[in-house]
Design brief:
With 369 residues, this protein is an alpha/beta fold. Helices cover 28% and strands 24% of the residues. The chain has 11 helices and 19 strands. Strands 1, 2, 8, 9, 10, 11 and 18 form a 7-stranded mixed beta sheet that branches. Strands 13-16-15-14 form a 4-stranded antiparallel beta sheet, with helices on one face. It has a 3-stranded antiparallel beta sheet with strand order 3-7-6, with no helix packed on it. A hairpin with an 8-residue loop joins strand 9 (153-159) and strand 10. Helix 1 (16-25) runs parallel beside helix 6 (129-142). It is globular and about 65 Å long.
């Protein structure tokens, strides 16, 4: 053991959940954040589309709840859905307070549409919402003296003298190849999901589920790991294995077409391209398997070029680097593992069934009261 550290609150993960929690808790506690790689290698920084929230009187919280329950096929925890949806506007406002520059129309948040939603309620920043959020929260966290961020330090095991009573963890230093012991009053796991176990995924290499495994070894309940959300549209390309093509393209009218140029979503759902992700992903998978396609196409080239360049600048640039001009060509896409729906079981406050251990964000499965 090369090093011993002490902190009041230890957060495993430096994505949106970990950073925002650290900023809030730093008002009372000293906080240490562990990032197992460099700070940009997290799912938050890679996210494109936006955050769903009811932010004005054109929509209503009940509508958002109903959409969530309907598209969750009646297996969502109703209490959890209601409580999380109620916090939508407060969460968006808090992110704005910490420097996130969401797109606006005048003084109001601009809103786009995504699959499964009955209203335009996606708050976004261009086509790189996650990068904007992550950068703003990192700036804020780095300005706070009570927060220490340590990169390339991978949590490997929770520790405690009593059964299910956590007092810290062991972490592997990927630079020095040593193990560090970190003692902490509270451990908050915000380490993300496990989608890198799939061949096609929108996630970075860090999404390997080690936070879930670590919690399970210590005694936390793990539930619903069979539920994996597949994003319908990941770029199909021999070298770009994990580049997401945002759902907001379909929200702004992009059409899914087979390799013969025919639209096909009308065969699967009357909401067409704006059906929920599970339906659209299965539809694409069906078209590929039934027709021996290795991908399908997503076409927004019929839109005005200036609109595409202003609304989707990063997707345009990345695709153009690969020889695909989305103002003139369709984008080859395949479904890809995107979000781990199960995980460490928690209540609405992030408490697990182990003392001093909390789980938040994608790593958590909020399902009991």
């Amino acid at each position: 053991m090369s090093e011993r550290l002490n902190t009041e609150v230890l957060i495993v993960g430096a994505g949106i959940s970990g950073l925002l929690t650290a900023i809030e808790l730093s008002k009372t506690f000293t906080v240490t954040i562990l990032s197992k790689s460099n700070l940009k290698q997290c799912s938050t920084a890679w996210a494109q589309g936006g955050i769903a929230a009811v932010v004005d009187d054109k929509d209503h919280i009940n509508n958002h709840v109903e959409d969530t329950l309907e598209n969750g096929h009646a297996i969502c925890d109703v209490h959890s859905v209601q409580e999380i949806v109620k916090q939508g506007k407060k969460s968006i406002d808090l992110l704005s307070e910490y420097g996130v520059k969401f797109n606006k129309k005048g003084d109001a948040y601009d809103q786009t549409l995504e699959g499964g939603h009955s209203h335009r309620r996606i708050i976004y920043h261009n086509d790189n919402t996650g990068e904007e959020i992550h950068s703003a929260l990192l700036r804020q966290a780095n300005s706070i003296k009570n927060i220490t961020i340590k990169e390339n330090l991978m949590a490997i095991d929770l520790i405690g003298k009593k059964e299910n009573y956590c007092e810290g963890l062991y972490a592997f230093n990927r630079i020095s190849n040593d193990v560090t012991t970190i003692k902490s009053q509270i451990v908050i796991i915000a380490s993300g999901g496990a989608s890198k176990v799939y061949q096609y995924t929108t996630n970075p290499d860090t999404s390997t589920g080690d936070g879930i495994a670590m919690a399970w070894r210590f005694g936390c309940t793990i539930s619903n790991m069979e539920f994996i959300q597949f994003h319908p549209t990941c770029l199909y390309h021999p070298t770009e294995k994990s580049f997401l093509i945002s759902e907001s393209l379909r929200g702004e009218g992009a059409k899914l077409k087979d390799l013969n140029g025919n639209c096909f979503m009308d065969k699967y759902d009357n909401r067409l391209e704006l059906a929920p992700r599970d339906i659209v992903a299965r539809a694409i998978d069906s078209e590929m398997k039934n027709n021996n396609f290795d991908h399908v196409n997503l076409d927004i080239s019929f839109k005005d070029k200036s609109y595409i360049l202003s609304r989707f600048p990063n997707i345009y640039k990345r695709c153009l680097m690969l020889g695909i001009d989305i103002t003139e060509q369709a984008i080859p896409v395949v479904p890809a593992a995107h979000y781990t729906c199960g995980g460490i079981e928690t209540n609405i406050s992030g408490e697990t069934d182990c003392v001093n251990v909390y789980a938040i964000g994608e790593v958590a499965h909020t399902g009991f009261h």
